[in-house]
Design brief:
With about 80 residues, this protein is mainly alpha-helical. It is about 50% helix and about 0% strand. The longest helix has 10 residues.
Length: about 80
């Protein structure tokens, strides 16, 4: 009987990038709670600006902690959120 050697093929690992959920909804919610009108968020495109800028954790405290930096980076956000956040 002739035995054939089995060749083991190791699977190639697949790197899956973790999809981050945009934090825009939480940002918008926090803004509205602080008294910013939805109309203001929409007209100044603040949610889109925030989503494009923010790369931190998507939780309330992290977002609130980033507000001063966000406003400093975006004068329109500073103007629209002044006195509210």
């Amino acid at each position: 009987m002739n035995k054939t050697a089995a060749t083991e093929i190791e699977p190639t690992p697949v790197v899956v990038e973790e999809e981050r959920e945009p934090c825009g909804e939480l940002f918008a919610h926090l803004c509205r709670e602080a008294g910013v009108k939805q109309r203001t968020l929409d007209s100044a495109k603040l949610v889109e600006l925030f989503e494009g800028w923010y790369s931190g954790s998507c939780d309330e405290q992290s977002i609130l902690s980033s507000m001063a930096e966000f406003k400093a980076a975006h004068p329109i956000a500073n103007a629209k959120l002044q006195g509210k956040m």
